[in-house]
């Protein structure tokens, strides 16, 4: 579904990504792991069109989208759920969700999708009239996930969805990711909780200093001595 080849990206004169290659198969969970500053978020923003690639190619379902505007990528079926959730705190839960369906491809069926989101996340229906800024961090993450689903995505980009959450909410987030895969969604996940992310991943990529240092099935990376020593504390 997604093929990234030779991706390079920079912030001004500082190059962050160096010839990054990776693929995401339809219906899979593909995980990016690595330390802070390794380039995970920059990859996500590059795929979403929020950071311009300085080199390489990004193909989505066979189409070159390297220079495509970010809003057109959303309408093609790409959806980024950003690090830090970034909900609109002064708006209600329902207003946040409805904004997720702003792309043309999502507008027509937004009422039905809203009910689907409430089915997946009953807490959001309970809080539909509450201001998003008054919710807990875990509830806001559920809202960010729900808002992403409102866009009717074909590929969901999740950037550090468990960052700063309590363990019980971390467990719920990973359970939700598993449920979404079972429902047929394709997910690219950037995550620092390497153990659980690799257990969940069909394929995984280890990033170090803006480069892919290791790749393979999630189970292979989970058993890698290098990964176990550097990222699993073993």
UniProtKB/TrEMBL annotation:
Q: Tell me the GO BP annotations in alphabetical order.
A: L-amino acid transport
> By its UniProt entry, which SUPFAM superfamilies does this protein fall under?
P-loop containing nucleoside triphosphate hydrolases
GO MF annotations, alphabetized: ATP binding; ATP hydrolysis activity; branched-chain amino acid transmembrane transporter activity
InterPro entries listed in its UniProt record = AAA+_ATPase, ABC_transporter-like_ATP-bd, ABC_transporter-like_CS, BCAA_Transport_ATP-bd_LivF, P-loop_NTPase
CDD domains, per database record: ABC_TM1139_LivF_branched (cd03224)
Q: Name one Pfam family in it.
A: ABC_tran
Gene3D superfamilies linked:
P-loop containing nucleotide triphosphate hydrolases
Q: Which UniProt keywords apply?
A: Amino-acid transport, ATP-binding, Nucleotide-binding, Transport
Q: Which residues form the ABC transporter domain?
A: 2-234
Top-level taxon of origin = Bacteria
Question: What protein family does this chain belong to?
Answer: Belongs to the ABC transporter superfamily.
Q: What is this protein called?
A: Amino acid ABC transporter ATPase
